[in-house]
Amino acid sequence: MPDSGRFDYIIVGAGSAGCVLANRLSADPDVRVCLIEAGGKDKSLMIRMPAGVGGLIKDAGPYNWGFYTDPQKHMNDRKLWWPRGKGWGGSSSINGMIYIRGHARDYDQWRQSGLRGWGYADVLPYFRRSEGYRGKADMHHGSDGPLVVEDSPLDSIAYDSFIKSGQEAGYPYTPDFNGADQEGVGPYQRTINDGERWSTARAFLHPVLKDRPNLTVMSTALVSKVRFEGKRAIGIETVAAKGAEPEFVRAEREVLICAGAVQSPQILKLSGVGPAAELREHGIDVVADIAQVGENLQDHLDVTVIHKMTQKISAYSRQAGLKKIAVGLNYLLRKQGAGRDNFLQAGGFLKSREGLDRPDLQLHYVNAIMMEHARQQVKADGFTIHACQLRPESRGNVTLASADPFDHPRIDPNYLATEEDRRAMREGVKICRDIAGQNAFNAIRGDEIMPGQSVKTDAEIDAFIRETGETIYHPVGTVRMGADEAAPLDPELRVRGVEGLRVIDASVMPTLIGGNTNAPTIMVAEKASDMIRGVPAPTPAEIAEPA
């Protein structure tokens, strides 16, 4: 088997976590770092241009793995589309570019479970370290980090209509969802830098490649397994194509798996780390019998309320037909026009019932008709209000389909398995409808397309959710960290039962946070880089208790 080199650290996956780790670890010129990515470079105009997000999410291809779930037994046995990023930047190169950290109490709950050093005051310095906020820096925001974060300009009356309607429905206006108080409706902050998507590849990887000969990036190399000597990880094997001879890359210090909530557990299992019975079923030798690898899968299920518009101000009229060519040329030549917009500038964090200590619903307002991840096209102006349940009780898993690394694993989120999850989603539909029906929307609101006026009772709303609910792209938890011995990872993200192996990505989160998962994944990688280097953690932040 060919030997492709020796490095101190091998990072598997150039996504939201991997690019951060590559930057931070290679800052030491005496450390050799290899970043390995199954996809290619992020060179597409569709990635660079924020308006390209719809095209990236809807189809499998060079930048999207294009997974499907197993049939969902609580959702009419539907197989759901699960886009995940492939190539430099990973999912941060195809996501909606929303910058959200989640609620402070989400992290405090981690700390209370025994994960010392993972409370909100502990992780806030890492959020601030990565962030280059273009607004006013304060105790909640950092201004010097490589990840550019901008406030949405709210440059359409459509966004004003949503925010004002939310206030008319009784919800407070919140200018900063990442500030002292998350609850309410308001503008989103976005990882967009002067009209360009600012993925982790753009922020952390590209700026340092020329000046760091100690950083090597291997693209289009699929990691088939971690290789062990006894219980110690000594490197990884890659394959360029199905049936090709594997190549070995040696790690002198550690292997760092950053392949995401779907593929990190897959790689561990292919390497012999996971539930022994499942591994033996596929003819894989057991290195460490860890029952919960691949378990604890959580995701934000999403449902939409969609209206036509009476004014031609949505994404459809701005880029339909031949206008799409003009939008692309205007952006390519001048970086101006509709290509600069992700059409997702406002939203909200609301409670589905009284008595909750934090919002359990998130709303995304999209200035377009967005059906089935933009795979179902409607040639009309309209708007979409998304609602997702932030802390589902349902738990699923990721299991092997075979021992072939080119076969997608089986994904079962087990959506809507509990009555509380069904209740919260039902209330989400009602809240979206209530907001859409307020006076501030009168000037632009047309007929309701979804759910449609025939859907009125709770039973009818439940049936609508079962038939149309989709992921909003936030899977976590499949290689959770925990203070308990059953957790696959310890609080420093080291895989239990072996040496020289860590997992660093959204799969490590024991529970879903209340919001989009890109920023929290970047935070995890920032914190992990200090753990790996033996750098003391920053002093916990002095923060006001969020409402």
Describe the structure.
By secondary structure, the protein is α/β, with parallel strands linked by helices. It has two domains: 1-42 and 87-147 and 191-256 and 476-540, FAD/NAD(P)-binding domain; 153-187 and 298-471, Glucose Oxidase, domain 3 (2-Layer Sandwich). It has 14 helices and 25 strands. Strands 1, 2, 11, 12, 13, 14 and 25 form a seven-stranded mixed sheet that branches. Strand 13 and strand 14 form a beta hairpin. Helix 1 packs parallel to helix 14 (518-533).
What brief labels describe this structure?
alpha/beta; FAD/NAD(P)-binding domain; 26% helix; 14 helices; 21% strand; 547 residues; Glucose Oxidase, domain 3
Ordered list of secondary-structure elements with their pairings:
Blueprint: E1 3-12, H1 18-26, E2 33-36, H2 45-48, H3 53-58, E3 67-68, E4 81-82, H4 104-112, H5 120-130, E5 131-133, E6 147-151, H6 157-168, E7 184-187, E8 189-190, E9 192-193, E10 196-197, H7 200-209, E11 215-218, E12 222-229, E13 232-239, E14 247-257, H8 260-270, E15 273-274, H9 276-281, E16 288-289, E17 301-309, H10 315-319, H11 323-334, E18 346-350, E19 361-366, E20 382-389, E21 397-399, E22 410-412, H12 419-436, E23 445-450, H13 458-468, E24 470-471, E25 501-503, H14 518-533
Parallel strand pairs: 1-2, 1-14, 2-11, 5-6, 14-25, 15-16
Antiparallel strand pairs: 3-4, 6-8, 7-18, 9-10, 12-13, 13-14, 17-20, 17-23, 17-24, 18-19, 19-20, 21-22
Helix pairs in contact: 1-7, 1-14, 5-14, 12-13
